[in-house]
Amino acid sequence: MKYLPIENQLFIQNRALFFNKMEGNAIAIFNSNDIMPTNADGTMPFRQNNDLFWLSGVDQEESVLVIFPNHPDENMREVLFLKETNEHIAIWEGAKLTKDGAFKASGIKTVFWLDELENKLDEMISKCDSIYLNKNIHSRSASDVQTRDDRFRNMITDKYSNKAIKEVAPIMHELRAIKSDFELKLMQNACDITEKGVRRILPFIKPGVMEYEIEAELMHEFLRNRSNGFAYQPIIGSGVDSCVLHYIENNKACKDGDILLMDFGAEYANYASDLTRTIPVNGKFSERQKAVYNSVLHVMKEATKMLAPGTKFKEYNAEIGRIMELELIKLGLLDKHDVQKQDPLKPLYKKYFMHGTSHYLGLDVHDVGDFDWSMKEGMVFTCEPGIYILEEELGIRLENDILVTANGPDDLMKNIPIEIEEIEGLMNN
Question: Angle 207-212-218 (CA atoms, 0-180°, nearest 5)?
Fold first, then answer.
């Protein structure tokens, strides 16, 4: 890991919150993510299971966390299992967590090597009535790959068929949706690193620069500030590709007169930031580009105001749709009479603004949380309206990360340039 050590108080606090949500005489088991193969002897970079990380701070493969608040032996109420390191592993892969290192990272005193897992689990499960297991129930989950959690669930349900199985995901979604002060500090750091990236690339971008060169400049800035890199695959799309919502090729030359849409964010300590800025390649917005940009910025500012405790997503999205309709009419893209006659289930603005305005943000870019909930203090959301005019090869999206507070929305990216004058000034400085 490149990030600085995290205070283990964060994870001690998180486990206490989880303890209080468990019901009955139950045990909860969390597995690390798989090491995914590529080809031959290659593997993909490891990314820890976010629930396990949130509860323990352990950022290492082949790790297991077991939580059993009612175990008669208080030393067995929270237990870590780690792959035992040795001289061979140390030489070929580098240092791994020792038992003492795991304690310092997590605050968990009881640490066993992974080869003890089966016997210790047998002993612990014999004393419980039910088992909490993890499963990916994210609303956007679309993978058919069988995960370590899936395989572990199959083993547990076969071996301990007399035990009731409970789902851990609803608890984790509820807890992770509310960010603690510890987490917000890490997220703010991710946003601050993203700001450094923005300020680096704005003077760099000129007609003729390649999209991947911009990506490279960002990666350089992120890594030199202890980020692991991009929180997600960056979008650097110029010209007509500014209208492609998930354009990731980033392989074209930026042309004079084109608009450039950039959607990226630094990751820090596994926490994501998520930013979008749209700029003129030549450093000067045309009048049409200005008009569309200011419409998007207006919608963004109005939407941000609504990110407040008690706001319901259905009402939030409906109001943003109404505001967007007015802007699209002003821009000559919609006719007000057609809007008055539109099918409410098929609003006309969707032709130019076809995606949602906000999603949860945290350890996952599209973080866990339920869109049927009302917004609560401590939640963090993106705010990212856009207007995409394919026939004009003009796509503009703006995005900042917003913390919901009792005193109004707190923009974690408020220091990142967004006004037209700021953008043009930095590009031509």
Answer: 100
- The label of the residue with tokens 């199985």 reads 165
Q: Which two tokens stand for residue 233?
A: 């695959």
The model carries a pTM of 0.95
| Residue 25: strand, helix, or coil | coil
Domains of the chain in start order, with CATH, are 9-175 (3.40.350.10), 181-427 (3.90.230.10)
Q: Using an 8 Å Cβ cutoff, are 385 and 418 in contact?
A: no
Given a contact cutoff of 8 angstroms between Cβ atoms, the answer to whether 228 and 267 are in contact is yes
Q: How many CB atoms lie within 10 A of CB 168?
A: 22
Q: List the one residue out of 83, 167, 173, 94 whose CA is nearest residue 131.
A: 167
CB contact set of 176 (below 8 Å; sequence gap of 6+): 50, 51, 54, 362, 363, 367, 368, 369
Q: State the pairing for strand pair 130-133/110-113.
A: unpaired
DSSP 3-state of 401: strand
The Cα–Cα gap between 174 and 151 comes to: 25
The predicted-structure confidence for 4-61, as pLDDT tens digits, reads as follows: 999 999 999 999 999 999 999 999 999 999 998 899 889 999 999 999 999 999 999 9
Alpha-carbon Rg for the chain, nearest whole angstrom, is: 24
Q: Pull the structure tokens for residue 296.
A: 């998007």
Using 70 as the pLDDT threshold, list the residues of the chain that sit under it: 139, 141-142
**CB 177 within 8 Å of CB 376:** yes
How do 380-383 and 266-268 pair as beta strands? unpaired
The two three-digit tokens of residue 218, written as one number: 């960002």
Backbone angles phi, psi at 402, to 5 degrees: -120, 130
Report in angstroms the alpha-carbon separations of 21 from 16, 29, 120, 315, 376. Answer: 9, 14, 24, 30, 18
- pLDDT value at residue 138: 72
Total Cβ atoms within 10 A of residue 141? 9
Q: Note the pLDDT of residue 82.
A: 97
Q: How far apart are CA 365 and CA 374, in angstroms?
A: 20
- Sequence-ordered strand ranges (E) for 359-412: 380-383, 386-389, 394-397, 400-403, 410-411
> For residue 209, what are its two tokens?
């620069």
